[in-house]
Design a protein that fits this description.
The chain is an alpha/beta fold. It is built from 18 helices and 14 strands. The strands form 2 sheets. An 8-stranded mixed sheet has the order 4-3-2-5-1-6-7-8, sandwiched between helices. Strands 9-10-14-11-12-13 form a 6-stranded mixed sheet, with helices on both faces. Helix 9 runs parallel beside helix 10 and helix 14 packs across helix 15. It is globular, with a radius of gyration of 25 Å. The chain starts with a helix and ends in a 6-residue tail after the last helix. About 10% of the residues have low confidence.
Amino acid sequence: MVARGLRALRGALRGAAGSGGRRLSTRPARVPAADYQDAIRTLNTLQTNASYLEQVKRERGDPRAQLEAMRGFLERSGLQVEDLDRLNIIHVTGTKGKGSACAFTERILRGYGLRTGFYSSPHLVQVRERIRINGQPLSKELFSKYFWLVYRRLRGTKDESQANMPAYFRFLTIMAFHVFLQEKVDLAVVEVGIGGAFDCTNIIRAPVVCGVSSLGIDHTSILGDTVEKIAWQKGGIFKPGVPAFTVPQPEQPLEVLRDRARECGCPLYLCPELDAFEAGTRVLELGLAGSHQRSNAALALQLSRTWLQRRGYEAGTDVLQDVLPGAELSAQRSVPLAPTFCPSDAMIQGLRDTEWPGRTQVLPHGPVTWYIDGAHTTSSIQACVRWFRQAALNEDKPQDGSEVRVLLFNATGDRDTAALLKLLLPCHFDYAVFCPNFTEVSVAANSADQQNFNVTLENALTRCVENQKTWTRLMEEKGGPWLPAPLEVGGLLQPDPLRGALLLVPPAERPLNSTSLVFPCISHALQWITQGRDPHLPLPASKVGAHPHPVATSGAVLLQEAAAIRVLVTGSLHLVGGVLKLLDPTLSQ
């Protein structure tokens, strides 16, 4: 039945669709807006992330081959590895929270009047978010300028022995190094892409300090299927004589990190909990919500303070002691504890002012409140659930009407979505909505920044339907609420082109009796969830509540009458990016 519905959907979708550079000037070039889109489209022609992951699998037996290839690309672009030493890099890896830790660190150091560079992944709405100067995404003009500079140099150096171009992520990493050098940043915060040992950012040979955020299971086909194997990969960024800090980890992966550090002569230290920095009645306020952000903030304090000390800056008015303790290890601790200190005013302000969209983000839009978090591992989903329950479910019920809770979910890659969905059950959602990470049904309607060539719509929808089946099974096991048995649906519910009804994917084999829906794109999912009640979303061409699907119809009535609609968007940063793009069109400008 699912296959038949997907075949019908393909037909409906086809119908919808038919309707070396340091000598260069640092001043932005006057580039027409079209050139930015041309740059993004050309970037998308490079090997996709899926191809890159396959390349990593092939090369991981010999990490030197991968890093040598990256070194070769860098040299063809006009830079030497030695040039990167001048960037005063803070290199950060981890499974959960490494982006947030980088964001805290960058914001703290920017508060000292330093000119910061920040390289992260993935982007949410526009590719240029990955490369930031002083906290702001690279302008379209500068992105175009540096993209074409690097691209033309690499294309111009192709020959029989060097006939290839770097993959998407490798290219952007090289481009980021060019940007940071030519824009003369005082430091660069560089987030590892995947793993550490074999990641293309690991051509950095002399960072100022390294950091490891919380470890967990992710990218198992690349990094290994145990936390210990993953810890070995993450510890690959350690460098001789370069101090490194880790947040508290389970005992065995922490021992792996310790051994990796000892092998290369890297002094590794454990970050104290943030509580240790909150002397007396002072409580450090964080710009990012959620208790799990406290360990990321504690890591950022150590990274920023160590960077300041090693580069000869004073981190506040206090006289700071040596950040590297020389005490012998106790029998109870395999990694020495870094010292606590009194955070400077700039550090306190930096933690408070940190912004990192798509992570524990709350957007109140009239009666609809969006809770947005790109969690996509078991540990990060657990943290997301704690945050959501505290932020949304503990609030008083509306006095003048009902509250409807909706989950909007998708997951990609080799992640165990059944495990992720099971963790979300305690949030007690009234509806679960699943959709691919495509903002619109028509490929042409999706911006070049968010085009994904790694997966077909059919495969993505098949994954969504499987997620729906998993959710239904979990709800049955839980003994969850059910709607009355509806009429059987014999295939795809065809849209009425005159009324512009939403396309909807049919349910799986069993009769439709669960409170879950699958839509073929994000915009259709948002239109159904909001029922025209979000003032930031454009009204659809027709009344979205009128739909022959029984769950869609009955749910639309509840959503239209609810005093409050609380929506948790999670499972994928790419899903989060598509949602933010639709909720805030200014992010695409």
